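Retry 2 of 3 after timeout on previous attempt. Resubmitting structure tokens to design endpoint.
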């Protein structure tokens, strides 16, 4: 059986596998490249899988990188039931070391790992670099009102204000969402970073797998904010937010986040706000009262040409 087929078979029986590891998700988002997976077995049992996305740059450089709209990927370890706590690190060293050995050749490696991966030492020993990233996660959303009570008072006031002025609906089409997001980005002097075709493909695949929704807030025919969220059995994810800068003070986007949490309260366990490393955005996400989760950004450059380019870039930016 080909590794992709074996990986797909594993995914069909693994309840705790994150949405972004699912073959149908990877097939939808891995544009301008392709994905594959490493499947490790020991004593005829799968002990870990590692899906990855490979694409070319300049027609000759191989990059292992992140697919669009995929906040994390990397190794997924299937721990034995009888594993003692002191054996865990040894097991991780063996499995992760084998993953690294099985990775195809790359000129550049960039990966954001799932929070469940807390041991990156085997990568450190192979000269990978690591930066710690952060997100905010509401850990128990079974009672939305209880979750809301943990929001910062400013955030609660925004939600109360918006609930009295805007209508929240679920009937916005993917085409309308994309058009609205494009308009809000252009109002801020920027360009949208993804194509409509890609977004339509993602929306269709999450619809087919009952794993995503578009929600929006409007007054009459004027859209104030919109949110595209997805979920799996363990978590919901705040994937794409669109907020009209003309109505930013309305609190509509905060209300949509709360409504998404309410919608998911009987479908999953927690809600990942996908917090930004940008200081201004981080402040807003923090006010939802979630727990700060750490996750790893790993990188490695094998190409001598790319290493020179990156070194020169740091010099021009005044970095050591």
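Retry 2 succeeded. Sequence:
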């Amino acid at each position: 059986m080909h590794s992709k087929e074996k990986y797909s078979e594993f995914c069909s029986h693994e309840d705790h596998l994150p949405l972004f590891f699912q073959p149908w998700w990877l097939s939808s988002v891995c544009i301008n490249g392709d994905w594959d997976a490493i499947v490790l077995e020991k004593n005829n049992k799968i002990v870990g899988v590692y899906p990855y996305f490979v694409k070319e740059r300049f027609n000759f450089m191989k990059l292992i990188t992140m697919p669009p709209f995929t906040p994390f990927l990397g190794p997924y370890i299937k721990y034995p039931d009888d594993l003692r706590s002191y054996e865990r690190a040894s097991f991780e060293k063996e499995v992760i070391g084998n993953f690294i050995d099985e990775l195809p050749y790359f000129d550049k490696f960039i990966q954001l790992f799932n929070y469940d991966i807390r041991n990156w030492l085997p990568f450190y020993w192979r000269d990978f670099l690591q930066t710690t990233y952060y997100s905010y996660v509401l850990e128990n959303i079974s009672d939305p009102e209880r979750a809301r009570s943990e929001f910062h008072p400013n955030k609660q006031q925004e939600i109360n204000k918006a609930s009295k002025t805007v209508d929240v609906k679920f009937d916005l089409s993917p085409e309308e969402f994309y058009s609205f997001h494009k308009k809000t980005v252009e109002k801020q002097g920027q360009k949208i970073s993804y194509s409509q075709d890609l977004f339509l493909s993602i929306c269709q695949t999450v619809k087919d797998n009952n794993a995503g929704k578009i929600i929006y807030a409007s007054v009459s025919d004027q859209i104030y904010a919109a949110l595209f969220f997805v979920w799996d059995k363990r978590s919901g994810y705040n994937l794409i937010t669109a907020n009209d800068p003309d109505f930013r003070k309305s609190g509509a986007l905060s209300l949509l986040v709360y409504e998404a949490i309410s919608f998911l309260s009987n479908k999953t366990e927690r809600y990942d706000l996908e917090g930004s490393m940008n200081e201004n955005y981080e402040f807003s996400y923090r006010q939802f009262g979630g727990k700060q989760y750490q996750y790893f950004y790993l990188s490695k450059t094998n190409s001598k040409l790319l290493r020179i380019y990156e070194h020169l870039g740091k010099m021009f930016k005044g970095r050591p």
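Attempt log closed. The chain has two domains: 3-134+295-316, 140-289.
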